[in-house]
Amino acid sequence: MTPTAAERRATRGAPPELDPLFDPDSVAVVGASPDSFYAGNLVDNLLDYGFDGALYPVNPNREEAWGRSCYDSIEAVPETVDLAVVSVPREYVVEVVRAAGDRGVPVALVITAGFSEADDAGAALERDLAETADETGIRVVGPNCIGVMAARGATLTSTCSREPEPGGIGLVSQSGALAFTTFFERAADRDLHFSHVVSTGNETDLALTDYVAYLAAQDDVDVVCAYVEGVDDPDRFMRVAEEAVRNGTPVLTVKIGQSELAEAATLSHTGSLTGDDDAWRAAFDQAGVQRVPDIPDLLASASAHTAYDVPDGDRVCIASTSGGLASLLADMAAERDLALPDIDGATEQSLLDLDELLTYGELRNPADIRGYGADALPEIADVLLGDDEFDAYVFAIGLSGVDDRAASIAADLEAIVETADKPVYVLWTGRKAPERTGETPPVARLRESVPVYEDPGRCLDAVASTCDYAADRDRLLDQAPRAQQPATAESGTTEPGTAKSGTAEAGTTKPAAPGGRLADASELALPRGRVLTWREAESLLDAFDVPMVETRVVTAADEAAAAVDSMAGAAVLKVDSSALPHRTDAGAVRLGVESAAEARAAYEDVVSAAREHVAAGEVAGVLVQPMVEDGVEAMVGVAPGDVFDSLVTVGPGGVLVEALDESATLVPPFSRTEARRAVERTVLVDLLKDRRDGAPLRVEGVVDLLVNVGRLADAVDDVAELDLNPVVVTEDGPVAVDALVRTDD
């Protein structure tokens, strides 16, 4: 039985077989006509740019086209082709694709527009097209797709104005126009070239993630770039991207559509803190995907990954012909967390001894070699490249790139870059336009062999991109793949090596990962569609080793008095009611209760306050808890996401949630390493370490708690949101003193 598109997408492992798309031996173009802009230009480009396979025009209204006989239908073509290009009116597309699928054609490239992007009728046709792909097993690119290109294969698009040259960038774009008219053309103008370009169209079958998986597995792809508007299966995208990074292929993306807060109505602080863009930021970070702001930044960083080996670290040495440029680069390096170790010892002295350098006293990093230093670049490079304190180098030239002196500088830089055993980046900020029309200036000739950056910021972005990739790859290799998470609950344990399995039935949980107390999915059933009472929430949280403050649930004033009497120190009384999730706002909380008499009065007060808002039968009781003081308040929570099923957030708690408005988001499942990095991205880590009134508190305790909450979020499908606020971190570890848990309907 042929697997459906959904089943194919869900398959982990080998990427889709797309060689027939990018490098077909035979192509049938259905709707082929020299008079058609799209089909006509596509065939012209295919032939003009070197395709030497079999081409079959299919058009029942023509006898011949491009000197070839036309066929009435895909069935009439004398062989089963590798690829069918479909450019017919939309009402015929499904019929043509079905015929191709029944014939055994592996891939159809649907150029035709007018589907879900157009109207309801088009959306219905697109659903039929998806069903046809499922039923016949043909892979469908598009519809509404502007085409694809492989520099060592075929060019199948109407909008490619020049023959592609082989390069190391694989590009996947959810904007067809941007793919070729902007990305491709702009890069070619800069002597930067692609191995593959694909516009994904409406993604009725093959989706962006499929192309990323395919490209990352190709030997001629050094870096995968993606222009992303949205992803249907974001968790699979994370798995595929993470696998690419782990296996040695960087993934860079421009993600548009930064939205406001998630639309889902939430009760918790967590939900109010987390929006779609926070989720994507977290997802990219966890998967090792680098997000860049725009197209020039994407191309600048991608060029570095095609030209240079991965640096061993982030220690950068900068040599600049301009002192002002050197200072600017120093600030920019700091903004990008690049290290600038001192130039000292024998290295500094060797540079000071060079007669060509008019430098006195000392050299710093960045080194101001002045304009005279441009005439001694080989000597300067010999000294700097011999110093093992640096992982990468930037030579910044603030001089003209078009005069006779520039020719010598360019030749020296080319030799330095090619012979260096570490990455050497070239920044050239001087004049680029030649004096005479048609003349190729030295700086342009240099750009034909090595990347030349004109903007200081983009140059250091490229340096940082390669350094960050090295760090991301190493981090991912040190932990279990995403498919084998979540992490264990035990403090300080290594990542588990087994994948979770199974799905949750309504009202149940999946088995907890090792370290939790939940052994069987049937062990814990949750009520649906409401806020849980304390006992219900406590049972859930205890199953995932989430530490809760000692709590007694009482239903009478005398019970409250007895509970307070048995506690050492002051107590807190608060109403327990599913109908009153924000009891503090209702005045249904009393702090600092120290005696039995105070407890009786407090009990009556909080119950009375609650009954002003909810019916008597909706009050489950009153919680009596010891006051937990002398600690740092944190917040950990789970919120629904528009893109991802759930998001986990950590940050300062209590009143600091709104005061500081600082938190970090994670997409479950996540590892201990990712949990620790999230905590360290917030001011919470400083609050724990730099306490005015006590010794530093362990960050690892919060990491343990965050990991356990992440396991809960990943395992329990029915939890819509969870808010542990505050969690008081003490010398004995964190303890949640309040919990709000709401389940899905």
UniProtKB/TrEMBL annotation:
Known Pfam families for this protein? ATP-grasp_5, CoA_binding_2, Succ_CoA_lig
Give coiled-coil spans as residue ranges.
Answer: none
Domain (CoA-binding) spans: 21-115
Task: Quote the EC number.
Answer: 6.2.1.13
**Catalyzed chemical reaction(s):** acetate + ATP + CoA = acetyl-CoA + ADP + phosphate
Q: Which UniProt keywords apply?
A: ATP-binding, Ligase, Nucleotide-binding
Gene Ontology molecular function terms on file: acetate-CoA ligase (ADP-forming) activity; ATP binding
Where is the segment annotated Disordered?
481-521
InterPro entries named among the record's database cross-references: Acyl-CoA_Synth/Transferase, ATP_grasp_subdomain_1, CoA-bd, NAD(P)-bd_dom_sf, Succ_CoA_lig_flav_dom, Succinyl-CoA_synth-like
List the signal peptide residues.
Answer: none
Q: Where is the composition biased (Polar residues)?
A: 485-496
Protein name (record): acetate--CoA ligase (ADP-forming)
The taxonomy runs: Archaea, Methanobacteriati, Methanobacteriota, Stenosarchaea group, Halobacteria
